[in-house]
Model the fold of this input.
Amino acid sequence: MSHAFPARYDGTCAADCGNRIHPGDLIRYDEDDQLVHDECAPKPDPLELKPTEVVCGVCWLVKPCRCDE
Done:
């Protein structure tokens, strides 16, 4: 999912709200590459790991950690 940015043109939010997007509104692309209001976009789960992240079995931090030193 992309970062929020200000809209430059009028449009319609592709999320369930269906409200108009006006220039200056904070918007982002959703997982289907549709423009939605920033507040309508699903928020990422802070506990969900990225595919490249590995959790250390000793300290339970995301590697790199100091356990391998």
Summary: The chain has a mean pLDDT of 88. The two ends are 35 Å apart (CA to CA). Strands lie at 5-6, 11-12, 20-21, 26-29, 35-37. The chain has no helices and five strands.
